[in-house]
Amino acid sequence: MTGKLLPLLLVALPAAGGEISAERQQALRDLLKQDCGACHGLTLKGGMGPALLPETLAGKSDDFLADTILNGRPGTAMPPWQPFMNRDEALWLIGILRTKPN
Fold this sequence. Notes:
The chain is an all-alpha fold. It has five helices and no strands. Helix 4 crosses helix 5 (87-99).
């Protein structure tokens, strides 16, 4: 059983440097769709949390958004995702959100 779980754990671990593997990119896309989508809506058009569309992110700096993702928002339902991703990965997700229609 451990032999089957190890590859899944490796894909789930944050990348060590600035380069993000294709497998990790897919894991981050899945996290965005499933975990972020649980609060921000499955199409990321809003729900319990605000919409995560390019037009709603406009005017917010990448640093502000990365800090929000990594540290959460105290007093809200937004949890910190730092245990599950690093800053480079958060910035990669922000790039996806800024450029792709959801």
